Amino acid sequence: MKTRRDFLHNALLAASAAGMLPWRAAAAEREGGKAAVKSKADVVIYEGAYPGWPWIAAGADGALYCAFREGTVHMYSPTGKAMLSKSVDGGKTWSKAEVIVDAPEIDDRNVAIVELPNRELLVSYNTYDKALASAAMTVRSADGGKTWSKPRPVGAPNTRTKSAAIVLADGSLLLPLYVAPGDKALASLSHDNGATWKTVEIPNTAGFVGDEWSPLEIEPGRIVGVLRNNHRQGEGIFWVTESRDGGQSWGTPKPTNVRSARHPSPAHFFRQGKTPTMIYADRRMVSVSAVRTSDPEFLRWDVEHRLPCYVYIADESPIADGSYPVSVAVGGGRRLVVDYEIRPETKRIAGYFVDFPQDW
């Protein structure tokens, strides 16, 4: 099995003006005449008019669920609908996408999914209307996505979703939200399996305005969130916030050394094995990488040795829209990274299998 040293030899890591080596060098590194960084999707989950902002989750029985929005343009689409596709073979093939929610003249978007301990599927999304007002909502399914409950509002006004809810060690649920137009991040907690929610603010601070974010429970009651910064001078730097009381209150966010260049997009924060890891578009619409940290405060990440996951086009030219990568473990040190890609020839939800080094 390849080690991290092998991976680094085969894919020299990228960089930006923040002091990292050029990403183009990584794509140019060759072994046996083949590019080290893949530029072709392993699977196409869905092709449509303008799909976007996917989320992927695994069920206890091994099934994978990919939820996303299908619309007509990036912004408000009156026909926007929440969709779901399912895989029972580790992500190699996917079912025909079915509608979860499709309210008339409402763009049902920013869809994310999680399987709860009772095996119900909980989908979070937000409505978006012609006046550009939004509201975070949830629906659930007790039969693997065949039928869905009536949508229920989370309750916080003018909110949008991005990441799925996570199940905390005490059994409560934490749903990351943000206020749009983007001016603060929020955390919604439920102690009754998502029937009701209590929402608290994550504070803004100098140089930081909260936006889309991804949480991870580090130990019982300690939750760390990686946030996209909506400050006009944010420069794509990710920030972190922390709760020490199970999500009831949050510390002032602090900047990391990780940057999403070119029109920043949010990261997916998770554990790869036992290692805290972030998958993110290091250059939006151009390339996606994974980075890890051993910093107990989650401020310093090993960006110099990050793992290139894929480029959208082999010559590293940008696609028109995309770069909301999320991922799920599929066994053997491998993850399936799912993203949306808007290109002249295809508009799709695509998946890339990424093998992590043994010593990650």
Keywords:
five-stranded antiparallel sheet; Neuraminidase; 360 residues; disordered N terminus; 2 helices; mainly beta
Overview of the structural elements:
The chain has 360 residues and is mostly beta strands. The protein has one domain (4-355): Neuraminidase, CATH 2.120.10.10. 4% of the residues lie in helices and 48% in strands. The protein has helices at 4-10, 23-28; strands at 30-31, 34-35, 43-47, 50-58, 64-71, 81-87, 98-101, 109-115, 121-128, 134-141, 152-157, 159-161, 166-167, 173-179, 184-190, 198-202, 210-219, 222-229, 237-243, 254-259, 268-272, 275-283, 287-292, 307-311, 321-322, 326-331, 334-342, 347-355. Strands 3, 25, 26, 27 and 28 form a five-stranded antiparallel sheet that branches. Strands 12, 13, 14, 15 and 16 form a five-stranded antiparallel sheet that branches. A four-stranded antiparallel sheet has the order 4-5-6-7, with no helix packed on it. A hairpin with a 5-residue loop joins strand 4 (50-58) and strand 5 (64-71). The chain is globular, with a radius of gyration of 19 Å. It starts with a helix and ends in a 5-residue tail after the last strand.
Oligomeric description of these chains: single chain
Alpha-beta content class: mainly beta
Q: What are the segments in which pLDDT stays under 50 over at least 5 consecutive residues?
A: 1-35
Largest sheet: 5 strands, antiparallel
The CATH architecture can be given as: 6 Propeller
